[in-house]
Amino acid sequence: MAGQRAEAPAIRTLPGALPGQLHAVGLLTEGLGECFTASARPAFSWQLAQPQDADPGRAVQTGYEIAVEDTRGTKFWSSGPVSSPAQRGVAYDGQALDDDTDYAWRVRVRDAAGNFGEWSEAKPFSTGLSDASWQADWIRRAPGGRAPLEVLEGALRVAGSPFLPVPCRPLRSFRLEARLRPVMGLAGLLLRSSGPGTGLLLELSAAGEVVLRHAPAWDIPALAVPDTAELARGRVDRLLEGRGAPLPGMDRMTSKDRTPGGWQDLAVTDNGHTITVSLDGVELLSVHLPAVPGAAGKLALHQGPRNQAEYASLRVSSEGEVLLDHRFDAGGDHARVCLAHWTSTTAHRQPDEWTLFRTTVQLTGTVRRARLFMAAHHHAQISLAGTHCLSTTSFGYPGEGYYDAADVTGLLAAHPPGSAVPLTALLHWYGPGQGRAAALPGLLVSLRVQYIDGRREVFGSGPEWSAGEAPYRQSGYRNDEGDPVEHLDGHAASLAGVPSSPSADVPAAISYGSHPTPEFPALHPRRTVLAEEFVAPAAFLAADDGTMVADFGQVLPGRPEVHFQDGVPGRTLMIRAGYGLTPGGRVDTGKTASQNTDMSFPYTQAAGPQQFRANVHLGFRYLELPGVEAAELSRVGAVAVHGSHPDEGSFTSSDPVLDSVFKLLRDSALYGVQEQFVDTPTREKGQFLADAVNISYATMALFGEHAYTAQALQEFRWSALRYWASGEDKGRYNAVYPNGDGKRDIPDFSLMVPEWVEEYHLRTGDLDLVRELLPHLCNTADYALRYIPAEGPTAGLVTRLGGGSGPYLHGIVDWPEPGRFGYDMECAAKTTVNAQAYSALLSTARLCSLGGDEDAAIRYASSARRLSDAIRTALRVDGVMVDGLHPDGRPSPHASQHATSFPLSLGITDPEFAAADARRLAALGMKQGPMTVHRLVRALLSQGLTDAVLDLLTRADQPGWARLLDRGATFTWEAWDLLDGTDYSQSHAWSASVVKEILEHLLGVRYTSGGGADVLIVPPLCRLDHAGGSVPTVNGHVAANWRREGGLIQLECTIPPGVTATVRLPAGSYTVGSRGNGATAEAAVAPFVPQSAGTARTNPGGSPATGREPVDFRIHPGTWTFTPSADGL
């Protein structure tokens, strides 16, 4: 580090001072237990602990002191004693730390008596790299490689390419006959072409429509084929085979749908003057278009981005001569012979680009320390000497990517001086799509080695590395979200080998330049961790035709793994994952069963023992291996991937159905997070805003998760800066971010953000991030206010909130469409949107107050009150909340459950109507979708209708989680029902949001201050006989176990050091006991009587309370029991 370092003064204990009874444990740097990427001014966090015989009354932190040491153990910075209860995200405030350097820190804390405890053990950490310190180039390979042509399952599959030449000579006239079907988007043919972007483009839709236009010029990563002048259009006058009227909810958020059409017979003739197009024997086009005299043109296949077609046969003739007659549906050998005539490579960037980079690391001494840093777009994994060291993933826009690091000291130290250590990196870039920004492929690696003699070397990625195509075939798209089918060619991999140095016939890597570059201007150290664990099948099944099917017992986000004892070189196996089985026992590939996704993993075998390991995960329960005998296998399983969280709470009860529902919610929340919160791990892996909010509520409450939520909040902040920073756009956020289609919002999703930030602050106490987000939250509040007219038929209400399109113009309300249960979408002033606008205003007001801006707090709180008054006055008709007002001011004739639950859950409802509204909600049962069900649950709980909430959770005779369990669900669904013909997700975690309410209101443990330093424990009044569990806080678990006997509540609870709890019990007298930590009831329990509540008084010994209000106890850390005395009731 530059500058002078001063050793912190020695810490002295004053004469006569009592030793502190509190010390720090669980030290984290930047939120990580093992941190190699700390910033120049890192943030430190810790938990609190006490000796076994300590006084729990002193288990409150009143101050701290932090010391940072160098590798010699010399203190060079100390915070000095700081009077503060802060223990999360405490910032280092010394001179900026050097990049890629090892440090350690310690902390001691001051207890409630004002005495410092012992210093903690030293916690090592290492700093990461600033953008200027990488000493490495972003690298890639030249575009092109294997053409996106593949024969699979009796058809030639073609995807994502501007030009795939048909294997025949250029022609002046021809007749082309093809049996084909568009699978995604349009099937395309280029006529009279001399190359990409030339000639004419004929496009065919699944609905039987053909369009002839000038060929456009484009290349991947374009999001769509550019428009060109249309020359002619025609259509077969019939419905798409097997499809009638659109099903409810068929409007996809992406306005696209992967719907394989029926096979169609296309005939195209061109005599040089007229082009004629027929479909299924019906002439659709006859266009007079004279060609250049004497000119011969090429025929080529053309598939736009995220477009795919399949050809069963293709025949070309000219002047009576058959030039090509390929039958891809005629059998494996014949199809392969046909495919051999086609050009096997392309110069264009592939829709699924795999690159293998190689170099050698020449060690010039004995290694004392080595760190490996890596960033990639999109995914990369790196090995040294054949040992996997590090993986990294980044889907963001330029400047918004992440990097990771690993300690490789032990691996390199095992190699003697002079060793040439092979380094191999596999880069996977799969184009723009849902959750992936449109950017270019790239890899950045910096291996930094320090020798025992003090020398340092940096081995950075650059043009001296080799960069060849990795052994993966191009097998089309899984779905219209742009996810390619992963097809590992094990045979090609075995032939290629893995040389120890760059091979002479492998081209050099192409450099974008030294980091940072215009394409990759900045990187951020990742603060989230991805967990990976191998999961074996719960059972092996046999389909009626003998196909082996592995059943994992539940839906998992996983990467299939299959080990073969031997293989047949060149044989392609269609390993296929799925959610359900057909009646015959095979994996169901239907649209609804597969989430409209090709869930296959084609694998081409090599000879001898081999292992197939997928690189890309999908959500699935079943994995079938057609054509494979059990004797061929040595291992079958999957690597489950999910976010790694710091802790986990728990819940059990007297109701076994409720416990099963809780497990369903728990698993869904866990598996709904990978690199980020996801819509679903199978189809739309993007981070949708509403999904992120809902899953975050569950993960923060149950797993003590903070990092993924902070990451998501930052990323949606970036979306506001990138797309929504001025004019009428200001205050909005992307509906999904990052994303391949750029700027796109859903208005009421944007309104969710302030309430989400407020919940994040409650769970963490992190005021720094709140302050960073506050300008955007104020913009969101102002965005809502801009759409409140001062006069007119909807005066005072948010009206036609700007943004959105299609099924979510001015507000989505709920999704999918059946989850709206008839909500009146014609309303200009929707009740749900107005309620969420109120929430945005009020949360922003409270957060402004926390951030010190009282003027803004007062302004937004006043606006919230005015909006609340307008909602109460204008949207209640004949005592019932209606869906909203129409543009002319007429109230909607429809009164949905949403219209009542949203205002009631947010405290808008007039107290005069609150109880009646809650009873109405309870009587309706479940009439809200999974996306908004937490509003319904909160509304019922606000009026004490806990049994009604239990009905929602446990009754299988209505939509809800118990019905999902009855239908075999092991992961929550996107909708309560899977309507045949839709592609609703069967791995959709957004209804797991109610985990928060279960822990807060059925277990009865609620946060009342940031980070859970104060909690409220309130056993519910409900039909459950007992419940128990725990809730993670910054300082550890708060556990509660309550039991109801004869109408009386008995409670045992455990409070960790650093947490103070209020226990609220029904009126009466209680005997209070304690155990552990040397605590006594007399010393540690204090009666607590809120003045406003008129709470009855009691005392630790259980003397009778006066009045019938609940009894509050204020308790310190320890384990406490509360036993009711019947004679005191």
From TrEMBL:
Q: Give me the stretches of Polar residues compositional bias.
A: 1092-1101, 1120-1129
**What does the UniProt keyword field contain?**
Hydrolase
Q: What EC designation does it have?
A: 3.2.1.40
Ranges of residues in domain Alpha-L-rhamnosidase six-hairpin glycosidase: 648-996
**What catalytic reaction does the record list?**
Hydrolysis of terminal non-reducing alpha-L-rhamnose residues in alpha-L-rhamnosides
| Molecular function terms, GO-annotated | alpha-L-rhamnosidase activity
Under the heading Gene3D superfamilies, the entry gives: 1.50.10.10, Galactose-binding domain-like, Immunoglobulins, Maltose phosphorylase, domain 3
| Segments of this protein annotated with the region Disordered | 463-484, 1090-1129
All copies of domain Alpha-L-rhamnosidase C-terminal, residue ranges: 1015-1074
A single Gene Ontology biological process assigned to it is:
carbohydrate metabolic process
Q: Give start and end of each Alpha-L-rhamnosidase concanavalin-like domain.
A: 543-641
**The keyword Hydrolase belongs to this UniProt entry's keyword annotation:** yes
- The organism's superkingdom is given as Bacteria
SUPFAM superfamilies, from UniProt?
A: Six-hairpin glycosidases
Protein name (Swiss-Prot/TrEMBL):
alpha-L-rhamnosidase
| Taxonomic lineage of the native organism | Bacteria, Bacillati, Actinomycetota, Actinomycetes, Micrococcales
